[in-house]
Design a protein that fits this description.
heterodimer, A: alpha+beta, twelve-stranded mixed beta sheet, eight-stranded mixed beta sheet, 25 helices, 26 strands, globular, B: alpha/beta, Rossmann fold, six-stranded mixed beta sheet, four-stranded antiparallel beta sheet, 24% strand
C-alpha cells in the first residue's frame, strides 16, 4: 500500500510539484522573515557589545534628556575613586549635531548625528582612537570619525560647518583630527560623530562647563561587573543609576530592535498571509488530485484496500510532499535571510554577522509546511476513502454536491458580521465602535469566503457576459461555472489581500480628499515648513520660531504660524497625550476652527483649548481646571475653549508661553498663508533659503502638506500593496495549478471540441477566459468587501470629525482589476499551451 | 485474392465522399515498429452508408482516423470531397473538421457543461454559423429528443446521449460523418435505435456515413461493408445481411488461422 502511494506520487510529478512550490513559497517567506529578525537582533547585540566592550559599569541620569541632572567633575572623581575601578570615562554628548557636506553646503543626511566633548587624552576605554592629527584643544577645533570625514568630504585641516543643537545654529570649525572606532571601524552603525573640545561642548550642550551626563567605568582585574555596580550605586548622587555593561547592552539592543518591530510585524503579516493562501492552494491541489484518482482509488478499494488504507495513502503523499516542500522552503528562507541581512548591513554600513537560524524558526517552518499541508489534505483524504468500489467501473460524473450547508454557515457568519460593521460605522459607540467594526469585518470576511462558491455562479455569469465573447469564450465561462467550489477556493486566495488594499485605499483616499477639501475651505495653508524627526517631537528638533519673522517679511505672505509639538513625556489629566503649542487665535483664523464652548483667543501661560472628542475622553469642559505635565514639570491649566475637530486640527493646544516647559524651544511646523493671487512657488524658494540652516527642515506647498499629513498612511498602503503582490503571486500560482489540473481532467472534452472544429487559438481563448474569470471574481469579491469596509471605517472617522466625506479611489480599484486580468492571463499561459498542444486523437481516447 | 477495390483509383472517382490512395500508417520504429495500414486504396461513395469491419488490430479504426484527418499518415493520400487532407496544417484541419466532417464516438463525448441542445448546436456555434431552423427541427424530431433538449448529459441515458451526439454530427450537414463504434457502449435496444436513425439519415436525407464496427448486426444496416485484415482491405460486401457478414468474418478468421499456420 505504501509502495503504491509512493509510486503514484512519482507518476504525478507535475501536479505535485505545483503543490510543493506552494509550500516552498509560504514556508520560504516565513522562515526568511524569522531568520532576518533573529539575525538583526544578533547584529545589534554585536554593535552594543562593541560599544561597551571595555565598560564594566555605566552611570547615567535616571531620566535622560535636556532637563536631566548633571554630574560635576568632583562627583566624577569621587566615583572614579571607588575600590575596583580601573578607569573612568566621563561623557559629554548630544544628538542632532549635524555636519554639513563641504562644497554643496547641505546637511549630511543621517538619522544618527552625534557630538561629544573630549578632554584631549586618549579614550581610557578604547572605544575611539586617533587615526591622524590631534584631539581638539580649542573651541573652534573638532575631530571627526573617519565615516564623518568621508560623508562630509573633509580631511584634516579643512573647515567643517556643524549644526549645534541647543544653540540651534550652525558654526564653522577646523578639523584637526580623524578618529576610528574600536575594531578598525569607520563608524559604529553609519552614524556621524563630531568631537569637540570638552569645555566648549559642555558650555554648548549643557549651558555650563565642568559637568557631565554620565560616566563609564572599567573594572580592575577580579572585580565583577555586578560587584562594581553595587559599590558605585552606594555612592551615587540622587537622580542617577548605575548599570552593568551587560544590562546596558540588553537594553540598548532591545530599544533598537523595537524600531524594527513595525517592519517585523509587516513581514510576519506577509508570512501569515502567504501561509493562509498557501493552505487554500494546497487544499485545492489535493482535492483535484484525489478527484482525478477516483478510479484508481476505487480500484484499490475493489481489490480489498480498507478506507483507512486509502485515506492513509493520500495523507502519506501529503506528508512526503510537505516534508520536501518545507525543507526546500526553509533552505530558501535561510538564503533569503542571508541576502536580506547583507543588504541591511550594507544599508546601515555595519559589518554583516552570520545568519541566525533559531530552533524555533526551523520548528515554525516545518509546522507551517507540514501541518498546513496535512490539514489541507485531510478533507480530500476522507473524501478519497469514501469512494465506493463501483466507481472504478463507472465514469466519474458525480452529481454536484449541494452548496446549501456551506452557504448557510457562510451566511451565519456574514450577516451578523455585516450587522456589526454597520453598527460600528453608524452607531455612536465611542472608541468601542472601531472594535465592533473590526470584529464584524473578520466575521464578514470568513462568511464571505464560505459564501464564495454560492456567489461564484451569478458573479461569473454576469462577468461572462462581458468577457465570454465567441463560442470559445462561452465554453470558458461554462468551465469556470462547472465547479463553483473549485473556482471559489482558487479565487479567494486573491480576496483577502485585495480586501485589505481596498479598505486601506478607500480610507486613505477619503482622508486625503477630506484634507484637501478642508484646506480649500479654510483661509488656507499655502506653504508648509516641516521638521523631519527621528524621535518623538519634544522641541529639540525643528527650527527657531524667530525665523518666521523673516518669512513674514517676504512679500505676499499673509500669516506665518509656528507650531510646537511635545509628545515625548506628556500627560494631561493623568493620561498620556500630545500637546501642540501655537497662537490659538491665529490657528482659528487660518483653519476656520469652530467653537463648541468658550472662545478661541490667544492663550496665556497655563491655558489650553481642546477638541470635543478629547474633551469627552478626558472628561473636561470649558472653564475647568486640569493638570498638565510636560516632562518633570506639572502645572494646573485652565480649559479656555472646546472646539470642533477637523481633519487638520484636533487635540490639545496650549499657548506659545508653554514652550518654556518643553524640552526644547524649536518649532516643528510652520504654516504660511499667502495674500490672494500670490504664487506659492517663489515663496517656497525663499522660505527654503531662510530654513537652510536648520538641518532636516523641509519646505513645501499645499499639496506637499496633504502628502506630508498622509505620508505615514501612504507608507501603510504601500506595505499592504506589497502584501497584495505576495498574495497575487501565490494566487496566480493557484490558478495555474487549478487550470493545469483541469486541463488534464478535461483532456477528452478538449479533444472533442478540437474534433468538431475549435481551433488551437479557440482552446487558448477558452482557458484564458476561465483563468481571467477566476482572478477577476477573487478581486471583485475582495474589492467589494474592501470598499464596503473602507466606507464603514471612514463613516466612523467622519463621526469623529477626522474626515468629512467618503471617497472611493476608482482609478486605483480599476488598476487592481486590470492587474487581476493580467494575473489571469499570465496564469493561463502554461495550461492553455498544454491544452492547445493536445493531440486530438490521443485526447479523445484519453481515459 | 485480388479485390476489385484496388482498382479503380480513388482520384479517378469524383463521386467519392472520402478516399484513400496507397495509404500506409506505421507506428514506432525499429524493433517496436507496427504497420497498421499497408497500402490501402478505397473510395467511399457519397450518399451511402459504409461500414468498415475487421478483427481487433486489423487497422479499421486507424483507417477511419486517417480518413477523417484525426491522425497523420505515413505515406499515401487522403481526400475528403475535393479537399486533399494529407499535408493540411493544423488550421486547415480545423477548418476541414469545422466545415466538412462530423464525428460520432463510442464514448459519446458530450460536454457536461452544456445542455443537449447546446451540445447539438456546438459545431455550428464554433463555426459561427446559424442553424437552418427547418433542418434543425427535422434532426431533433428524427432523433426524438424534443423533450430532452434542456437536459444535461448527466441527466440522459446512454442511448439518449448517443442520439444527442448523432444529432450534433448531423445538424451541420457535413460532407461525411465518421462513426467510431457508435453502438459499442449501448445496450442492444438503444443500439438498434441509433443505427435505425443513422440509416434513415442516409436513405431520407442523403447523408454520407462511414462507420467502424465489429458488430455484424450493426454492419447489416450499411449499404456496403469493407473488411480489413492486417492493414489491408481483404473483402467487401454490398447490401449485407447480418448472416452474410458473419459468414464472411468466419471465413476471414479461418483464412487468418490458416495463414498463421503456414508461417
Amino acid at each position: 500500500m505504501i509502495k503504491a502511494s509512493l509510486r503514484g506520487l512519482l507518476q504525478r510529478k507535475l501536479r505535485l510539484s505545483l503543490a510543493v512550490f506552494a509550500i516552498v513559497l509560504s514556508v520560504g517567506f516565513l522562515s526568511a522573515i524569522l531568520v532576518l529578525s533573529a539575525t538583526l537582533n544578533a547584529q545589534f547585540s554585536t554593535l552594543f557589545s562593541t560599544i561597551n566592550q571595555n565598560v564594566a559599569v555605566r552611570v547615567e541620569a535616571g531620566e535622560p534628556g535636556p532637563r536631566a541632572p548633571r554630574l560635576t567633575a568632583a562627583q566624577v572623581r569621587d566615583l572614579a575613586a571607588t575600590d575596583g575601578v580601573a578607569a573612568a570615562s566621563p561623557e559629554v554628548s548630544a544628538e542632532g549635531v549635524v555636519p554639513y557636506r563641504a562644497g554643496d553646503d547641505t546637511p549630511v543626511g543621517t538619522d544618527q548625528a552625534l557630538g561629544f566633548g573630549v578632554d584631549g587624552r586618549d579614550d581610557p576605554l578604547g572605544l575611539v582612537a586617533l587615526r591622524e592629527g590631534a584631539w581638539p584643544a580649542a573651541a573652534d577645533e573638532v575631530a571627526v570619525s573617519a565615516h564623518t570625514a568621508e560623508q562630509a568630504r573633509v580631511k584634516r585641516g579643512d573647515r567643517l560647518k556643524v549644526y549645534l543643537p541647543v544653540l540651534n545654529e550652525p558654526r564653522t570649525f577646523r578639523v584637526v583630527g580623524v578618529v576610528g572606532i574600536a575594531g578598525g571601524r569607520d563608524s559604529l552603525a553609519g552614524e556621524t560623530m563630531v568631537l569637540f573640545q570638552e569645555a566648549f561642548a559642555q558650555q554648548t550642550f549643557y549651558g555650563e562647563t565642568g559637568v557631565y551626563a554620565g560616566v563609564s567605568f572599567s573594572a580592575a582585574d577580579g572585580v565583577s561587573q555586578e560587584l562594581l555596580r553595587d559599590r558605585i550605586t552606594a555612592k551615587l548622587p540622587s537622580g542617577f543609576t548605575a548599570r552593568t555593561a551587560a544590562e546596558v547592552n540588553d537594553e540598548q539592543a532591545a530599544a533598537v530592535s523595537t524600531q524594527f518591530d513595525f517592519f517585523t510585524y509587516i513581514l510576519v503579516g506577509f508570512a501569515v498571509l502567504a501561509g493562509v493562501v498557501g493552505v487554500f492552494l494546497i487544499y485545492n491541489t489535493f482535492n483535484i488530485i484525489v478527484a482525478q484518482r477516483t478510479r484508481e482509488l476505487a480500484l484499490l478499494r475493489a481489490l480489498g484496500a480498507g478506507w483507512g488504507q486509502v485515506a492513509g495513502s493520500v495523507l502519506l503523499e501529503a506528508l512526503v510532499v510537505s516534508a520536501v516542500g518545507a525543507t526546500v522552503g526553509l533552505s530558501a528562507g535561510i538564503g533569503l535571510g542571508y541576502w536580506g541581512e547583507a543588504a541591511l548591513a550594507e544599508q546601515l554600513t555595519m559589518d554583516p554577522v552570520p545568519v541566525v537560524v533559531a530552533p524555533s524558526t526551523v520548528l515554525l517552518a516545518y509546522a507551517l509546511g507540514i501541518v498546513a499541508t496535512m490539514v489541507a489534505a485531510f478533507i480530500p483524504a476522507i473524501k478519497a476513502s469514501s469512494v465506493p468500489p463501483v466507481a472504478a467501473m463507472r465514469d466519474l460524473s458525480r452529481p454536484d454536491r449541494s452548496l446549501l450547508g456551506l452557504s448557510l454557515t457562510g451566511a451565519a457568519f456574514a450577516l451578523p458580521g455585516a450587522g456589526l460593521v454597520l453598527l460600528g460605522a453608524l452607531a455612536d459607540l465611542g472608541g468601542a465602535g472601531f472594535l465592533v467594526l473590526l470584529g464584524g469585518a473578520v466575521l464578514l470576511l470568513l462568511g464571505s469566503l464560505l459564501l464564495a462558491p454560492l456567489l461564484a455562479r451569478p458573479v461569473i455569469r454576469a462577468l461572462g457576459f462581458v468577457l465570454g465573447r465567441g463560442q470559445a469564450g462561452r465554453l470558458g465561462v461554462r468551465n469556470a461555472l462547472r465547479n463553483p467550489r473549485r473556482t471559489a477556493v482558487t479565487a479567494v486566495a486573491l480576496t483577502v489581500g485585495v480586501m485589505m488594499v481596498g479598505t486601506a485605499a478607500t480610507v486613505i483616499e477619503s482622508f486625503k480628499s477630506s484634507l484637501t477639501e478642508a484646506l480649500g475651505t479654510s483661509a488656507g495653508v499655502e506653504v508648509l515648513i516641516q521638521a523631519q524627526l527621528n524621535a518623538a517631537p519634544d522641541g529639540t528638533q525643528g527650527f527657531d520660531p524667530k525665523a518666521l519673522e523673516r518669512v513674514r517679511a517676504i512679500p505676499g505672505v499673509e500669516e506665518a504660524a509656528a507650531w510646537h509639538f511635545d509628545a515625548a513625556d506628556v500627560a494631561v489629566a493623568g493620561q498620556p497625550q500630545f500637546v501642540f503649542a501655537t497662537d490659538v487665535a491665529q490657528a482659528a483664523r487660518m483653519f476656520s476652527m469652530k467653537t463648541v464652548s468658550g472662545s478661541l483667543r490667544s492663550l496665556g501661560a497655563r491655558e489650553l483649548v481642546l477638541d470635543e472628542n478629547t474633551a469627552e475622553a478626558l472628561g473636561l469642559s470649558a472653564g475647568e481646571q486640569t493638570k498638565v505635565r510636560l516632562g518633570p514639570v506639572e502645572r494646573q491649566y485652565t480649559v479656555v475653549a472646546v472646539y470642533e475637530p477637523t481633519p487638520l486640527v484636533s487635540g490639545i493646544l496650549v499657548g506659545p508661553a508653554a514652550v518654556a516647559d518643553f524640552n526644547g524651544p524649536l518649532a516643528m511646523q510652520g504654516l504660511v498663508s499667502l495674500d490672494e493671487g500670490v504664487d506659492a512657488a517663489p515663496v517656497v524658494a525663499q522660505v527654503e533659503q531662510i530654513m537652510k540652516d536648520y538641518p532636516g527642515v523641509r519646505v513645501g506647498d499645499r499639496q506637499s502638506y496633504v502628502e506630508q499629513s498622509s505620508a505615514q498612511l501612504d507608507g501603510l498602503l504601500l506595505g499592504i500593496q506589497l502584501l497584495l503582490v505576495v498574495s497575487l503571486v501565490i494566487a496566480a500560482l493557484g490558478i495555474l495549478n487549478t487550470l493545469m489540473l483541469s486541463v488534464t481532467e478535461r483532456t477528452r472534452e478538449l479533444g472533442l471540441v478540437r474534433a468538431i472544429g475549435l481551433s488551437r487559438g479557440g482552446v487558448v481563448a477558452m482557458v484564458n477566459v476561465e483563468s481571467i474569470l477566476t482572478a477577476v471574481f477573487g478581486v471583485a469579491l475582495g474589492l467589494a468587501l474592501g470598499v464596503g469596509l473602507g466606507a464603514a471605517l471612514t463613516q466612523a472617522l467622519i463621526r469623529l470629525k477626522f474626515a468629512t466625506a467618503i471617497t472611493v479611489p476608482w482609478t486605483q480599484l480599476a488598476a487592481y482589476l486590470v492587474v487581476a486580468v493580467l494575473a489571469g492571463v499570465v496564469a493561463a499561459i502554461l495550461p492553455a499551451r498544454r491544452a492547445a498542444r493536445l493531440n486530438v486523437l490521443d485526447a479523445i481516447a484519453y481515459e | 485474392m485480388t479485390s476489385p477495390l484496388t482498382e479503380p483509383r480513388a482520384d479517378r472517382n469524383p463521386g467519392a465522399a472520402a478516399a484513400a490512395v496507397d495509404l500506409w500508417k506505421v507506428y514506432g520504429s525499429g524493433e517496436a515498429q507496427v504497420v497498421a495500414l499497408r497500402g490501402v486504396n478505397c473510395a467511399l461513395e457519397r450518399g451511402r452508408f459504409t461500414a468498415i469491419m475487421g478483427p481487433s488490430g486489423s487497422g479499421k479504426s486507424t483507417l477511419m482516423h486517417c480518413l477523417a484527418g484525426l491522425d497523420s499518415v505515413t505515406r499515401g493520400q487522403v481526400s475528403i470531397g475535393e479537399t486533399a487532407v494529407t499535408g493540411l496544417s493544423d488550421a486547415g484541419l480545423t477548418k476541414l473538421r469545422r466545415d466538412k466532417v462530423g464525428f460520432i464516438f463510442q464514448q459519446f463525448n458530450l460536454l457536461p457543461t452544456l445542455s443537449a441542445e447546446e451540445n447539438i448546436l456546438l459545431p455550428l456555434a464554433i463555426a459561427g454559423r446559424r442553424p437552418d431552423p427547418a433542418w434543425y427541427a427535422t434532426v431533433i424530431d428524427t432523433v426524438g429528443l424534443r423533450d430532452r433538449l434542456h437536459h444535461r448529459p448527466s441527466q440522459l441515458s446512454g442511448g439518449q446521449q448517443q442520439r444527442v451526439a448523432c444529432a450534433r454530427a448531423l445538424v451541420a450537414r457535413p460532407e461525411v460523418i465518421f462513426a467510431d463504434e457508435p453502438t459499442g457502449n449501448l445496450d442492444s435496444r438503444s443500439g438498434a435505435e441509433v443505427l435505425a436513425f443513422l440509416r434513415r439519415s442516409v436513405t431520407e436525407y442523403g447523408q454520407t456515413i462511414i462507420m467502424v464496427t465489429h458488430d455484424a448486426n450493426a454492419a447489416s444496416y450499411a449499404d456496403r461493408v469493407i473488411f480489413l485484415a492486417d492493414g489491408q482491405i481483404v473483402d467487401e460486401l454490398a447490401s449485407p445481411t447480418a448472416d452474410a457478414v458473419l459468414d464472411r468474418i468466419k471465413r476471414l478468421d479461418t483464412a487468418a488461422v490458416a495463414t498463421g499456420a503456414t508461417e
